[in-house]
TrEMBL record:
Pfam families named in the record: Oxidored_FMN
Keywords on record: Flavoprotein, FMN, NADP, Oxidoreductase
Annotated source species: Butyricicoccus intestinisimiae
Protein name, entry field: NADH:flavin oxidoreductase
Superkingdom: Bacteria
Cofactor needs: FMN
Length: 350
């Protein structure tokens, strides 16, 4: 049957009210450096939920203070953070929208002086030192505890941040992870043990998915990782880019969307769990076209939803969707007040 943007479906017991997802997108100037939620976060997610999205995945939220990408990134590393996070889930649920939180550790890309990495690896001027097995187990526990806190805070699930060069991605990419032990022989082992640990500690209906690199380093690897994760009970696969410096991207000539949208479609052919596609989807026509061409289950509309938080409601009602203006550097993470797309959208609303 032809997939429609307006279709509802469920992941475990979580009802997804249409096929548009707001993917995780960090903002760095709303926090005070403690990793605690501010009123601005609550209002931002309430607004996105009110705007009709089928699902929201909250921005990368760090599982340890040392694993942060920026000092003002949201955190889920201590129990005191739960109350603020609960304000977000309550605001979003009151608008009838489910919400997952992306749990994250930056690894070698992070701000820590001695950044963690599965193996000795040089990234620009940063040298990652190989993690000890004790360090690996400690970070795995941090992910598991973060998922428990996410459950306590009222999220419908978590998305493991397994792409975009961060720690899990570093484990999954054999050009970065050159370890001689089981974590190198089986690059998925680090993630699988976290998945297993989370499953043991949260109720059965709590969703556990992953944002996974499609080209890690090749699409063949991405497909293999997807299949292994499915065999081990992952609930959804949100497909994006992998470790930028160590990936071989591909798409056939004439494919009208981004290479990772193509890759999401190729992964969808091989698994039966829900697959999400992302990048460069700006208009309702893009969303419909990408759904039809790839047969994925969910389309992420990221910057489009930042510029117009009502993007989904407008699309479903057949209204004009103001959208992202593709600034050369997205200003949102630095300061949402600088988002030219949002400013234009607000002007048009007046
Ligand atoms: C401001 C900003 C912050 C982002 N933060 C995250 C993040 O926290 N986690 C993540 O996986 N991707 C992050 N991304 C990537 C987006 O989720 C998305 O994959 C990307 O913007 C491409 O989709 P789009 O063309 O619909 O915007 C971010 C992107 C932007 C623009
Ligand atoms: S309009 Fe510019 S600042 Fe706003 S979401 Fe798009 S790229 Fe980011």
């Amino acid at each position: 049957m032809k997939k429609q943007v307006s279709d509802t479906f469920s992941i475990r017991n979580t009802m997804i009210r249409n096929r548009i997802c707001v993917p995780p997108m960090v903002v760095y100037n709303w926090s005070d450096g403690s990793g605690y939620v501010d009123d601005k976060h609550v209002e931002h997610y309430r607004q996105l939920a009110h705007g009709g999205a089928g699902l929201i995945i909250q921005e990368a939220t760090c599982v340890t203070a040392e694993g942060q990408l920026a000092q003002t990134q949201l955190g889920i590393w201590e129990d005191g953070q739960i109350a603020g996070l609960r304000r977000i889930t309550q605001a979003v649920h009151a608008e009838g929208c489910p919400i997952f939180v992306q749990i994250h550790h930056a690894g070698i890309v992070g701000i820590a002086e001695h950044a963690l990495c599965p193996s000795a690896y040089q990234l620009g001027d940063k040298t990652g030192a190989e993690m000890s097995v004790e360090q690996i187990h400690a970070i795995q526990q941090a992910f598991i505890r973060a998922a428990q806190r996410a459950y306590q805070a009222g999220y419908d699930g978590v998305e493991l941040h397994g792409c975009h060069r961060y720690l899990m991605c570093q484990f999954l990419n054999r050009r970065v992870n050159t370890r001689a032990d089981v974590y190198g022989e089986h690059p998925e082992q680090f993630v699988l043990e976290i998945l297993e640990g989370i499953r043991k500690t949260v109720p059965e209906d709590f969703v556990v998915g992953i944002r996974l690199g499609a080209f890690e380093p090749t699409l063949e690897d991405g497909i293999r990782h997807a299949k292994i994760l499915e065999q081990h009970g992952i609930d959804f696969l949100d497909i994006s880019y992998g470790f930028t410096e160590e990936q071989e991207t591909e798409k056939p000539a004439g494919f009208p969307y981004k290479d990772i949208v193509y890759a999401a479609g190729e992964i969808k052919k091989q698994v039966s769990v829900p697959v999400f596609a992302v990048n460069g989807i700006r208009t309702p026509e893009d969303a419909r076209g990408a759904l039809e061409l790839t047969q994925v289950d969910m389309i992420d509309v990221g910057r489009g939803s930042l510029a117009n938080p009502n993007w989904t409601a407008d699309a479903l009602a057949g209204r004009e969707t103001d959208t992202c203006l593709d600034c050369s550097v997205c200003q949102w993470r630095i300061d949402p007040a600088r988002c030219a797309g949002r400013l234009l959208h607000e002007k048009r609303q007046k």
